[in-house]
Amino acid sequence: MKTFQNWPDHYPDPSWFIHDRFGLFIHFGLFSIGARHEWFMTTEEIAPETYRETYFDQFNPNLFDAAVWAQTAKDCGVQYIVFTTKHHEGFALWDSEWTDYKVTNTPFKRDLLAELLPAFRDVGIKIGLYHSLIDWYHPHFTIDGLHPQRSDLAARESNSQRDMLIYQDFIAGQVTELLTQYGRIDYMWFDFPYSHRDWGWSKGKGAEDWDSSRLEKICRTLQPDMLINDRLELGRGITTPEQFQPEKPLEKDGLPVLWEACQTMYGTWGYDRDALEWKSSDMLVKMLIDTVSKGGNFLLNIGPNPRGEIDPRAVKRMQAIGAWIRLHKEAIIDCGPSKYPVPKDCRYTQNGKKLYLHVYSYPFKHIHLPEIADQVRFIRFLHDGSEIFYRGFDPNEVITSTEAVIAPNDLVVTLPVVPPNVLIPVLEIT
Length: 430
Ligand code: H79
Fold this sequence. Notes:
The radius of gyration is 24 Å and the shape is elongated. The protein has twelve helices and 16 strands. Helix 5 (66-76) packs across helix 12 and helix 11 (281-293) crosses helix 12. By secondary structure, the chain is an alpha/beta fold. 26% of the residues lie in helices and 16% in strands. The structure holds ligand H79. Ligand H79 binds at residues 38-39, 43, 191, 193, 196, 199, 242, 262, 269.
C-alpha cells in the first residue's frame, strides 16, 4: 500500500477511493427552500426559531425519487456520493432520536436517508455521509462568530447557559445513529470551515469543542473500513480543499497526501435558483481531469431543488460529463499523475504503463511530446480508438525542412484538422 502523509497505518485501506477518483456531493436541507447561499441563516442573521418557523413546515420534496437521483448519478459516471445528513442549520435528514428537528416531522414525513442510500447502493455507487460539526440550531451550541445570532447581544449572553459538553453527547449520538442504522458507510465527511476560524467577533471552534477524538473513535469502531476526511482537525484524514484547484499534486513532509477537490457548479452548495456563474460542462470535465492529473479525487456538487428534483441545468451538465466519461473512463478511473513533462494546454493522467494526454485546447495540427519517444509503441484517440500518426527524431533530417527539428527523445503527433466531437479529446499513449 502506498504511503500518504495524512493516512496513518491504523487507518483502513483507502485503495477504493484512489481507484474511484470521481464522486458526487449532494447538498440538501431546509436551506434548499431558501434557494440562495446555503449560509443565509448566518449571513442574514436569522434566529433559529424564526428559521424553523419559516422553513420547517415547508419542507416537502414530494417529487423526490431516490432511484432517479441514483440513476442520474450513475449516468454521470460518479463512483461514490457524499450526502448532507445535517448541514450547519442543524436539520436532520434522517429519523434521528436525538432531535425533533428532523425530516420525519416535516410534511414530507419520510426518512429520506433510508430511501436514498439503498437506491445508490443498488446501482453500485458507494456511500459517503456529510455531517456538520457546526450546529446553529442546537440550544447548547455556543454562539460564536459564525453563528446567526452573533450580533444579538442577549443571545450571546445566553452562552453562559450553553454547555458544549451536552452538544458533544448530541453529535456523538447522531453520528452513532448514522453509523449503526443505515448499513455500510464507506466514507464520513465531517464539515467545519477550517480556513475561517477567526471570522467575526470571536474565534470559531475546533477539535476540542466537538471532541474530535471521540467522534473519530466512534467512526473507527462502528465502521472499521470507513474512510474519513480531515476536518476533525486531528492531523489525519483525506484533505478536502473547497472550490480550489491546487497547482500540483498535494504533498506534506515530502510525502503525497490523500486529497479530494470539492467543487460546485455555480459557487454555492445548496439549490441556488438565481445563480449566474454556472460552469460549463467543458470546464467541469477539465476540472475533473486536472484533479486526477494531480493525484486527487473530484467531488462535484449538486443542490437538488425543494421539490426533490435535480435542476435541469445540473442534469444537463451531469449528462455531458457522463457522455464524456463513457468514452474516457480508462483515462480517469484508477489513474493518477504522470512524471512526463506535459505539453502546453494539456494534462497527463497515467495508469501503470498507459498514458493519457488530455488536450484542453485543440492545437494547430501538432503536439510536441517531450522526453517520451523511448516509451511509445502506439498512439490513438481514446474516444473512437483510431490511430494517430507521430514522428520522432530523425538524424538525417534536413534543417531547412518546414517541420520543426525534433529533439532526440521527443515526439510530434499529428492530429486531424477537424477536432473530434468530444468535450476534451484524449490520446491514449502505450
Ligand atoms: O457545505 C459546503 C459549505 O456550506 C461549507 N462546506 C462546503 C462543503 C462551507 N463552510 N464554510 N465554507 C464553506 C467556507 C466558509 C465561508 C465563509 Fe462565509 C466565509 C463563512 C463565513 C464567511 C460564505 C461567505 C459563507 C458566508 C459568507
